[in-house]
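Practice problem: predict the structure.
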Amino acid sequence: MNVNDLFKASFGQFGSVYLTGDAAQLDLDGASASRFVIAITMLEDVTFANDGLHTLDGLTSSISSESGELGVGDEFGATTNESTNTNMDQITTSHTFPKGITIYGKWDFVELNSGSCICYLAPVGY
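Answer:
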């Protein structure tokens, strides 16, 4: 990945998908998928479905519930919907992501419970 590709991803030049309302979803989980979600910008307050965020290929999750530097280092990826570790939190419909924020990570499945967002894409292998 070169610097030009990094700029393209940061400005959405690999594409984006608008999702709105309950059960709106983007499913890029498959052998033929050529893109993944690299960022999600909330256009309204958003809640994700109880199984609404899947990390790309089971990679370490992209969201931590820790706020301290040492805690994040120990528990990075603490919030996920794919966790089998009982010490980890799961994103549920009770977690609200406020309008105007952008979260970054590597997801291949996004499903909303409420609100609307733009999912920015990047090529697999990025």
